[in-house]
Amino acid sequence: MFRSAVLLGAFAITAPAAAADSVVLGRGVSNAFLSNQPCADPSLCMDANYVWVLDADRTVVGPAAVGRVRAIASQHTDATSEFVKSVELFVLRPIQDPSLQESSGAKYYLVSVSAKDSRGRDCLNVKPADVGLRLDTSEVMVDPSSGSFCFEASVLAANNRWRGP
Questions:
Q1: Could you give the CA distance from residue 130 to residue 165 in angstroms, rounded to a whole number?
Q2: What distance lies between CA 129 and its chain's CA centroid?
Q3: Its pTM surpasses 0.85
């Protein structure tokens, strides 16, 4: 849990929220270095861009994003193959810049990811409501060690709270 919580915090993207985010269920496939980015204080920021490849099976909320997807994430270091393959929940934000889409081959920024923790919960580094997940406040717990917003992974399906395919 600690390792995934640390990595979850590494994926926050500060891109403008001009278009709606998509929350998708699927599987991580790979994570590869794309480019360095400037950073005034390396101890406080993510200093590299990585391209994640994922197989999106179902859109939980937001515009449909299914199939093989490429997304850019700001990270401090590579994600291990084991972690990438354990990720099942992704928050994607469309890239508005056509030249960035073309140069990276990615259509999205990766805002947050979640691999189920040891308790069967998904944990995001963004508030679920901020990305369109309609969960009751009693279903969301803030993990004290990471600050992540955690909820039972089964609650998305059990309460049928998504729109999309």
A1: 21
A2: 14
A3: no
Is the torsion defined by CA of 144, 13, 118, 138 positive or negative? Answer: positive
Give the start-to-end residue ranges of the domains of the chain: 2-158
* Cα Rg of the chain, angstroms: 15
For 112-121, what is each residue's pLDDT tens digit? 999 988 888 9
Average pLDDT over residues 133-162: 83
* Cβ 109 vs Cβ 100: under 8 Å: no
Give the position of tokens 């998509």: 22
Strand stretches in the chain, DSSP E: 22-36, 48-61, 67-75, 87-94, 108-115, 121-124, 141-142, 149-152
Residues 6+ apart with CB under 8 A from 159: 135
* Mean pLDDT computed over 70-83: 89
CA dihedral sign of residues 71, 75, 81, 82 = negative
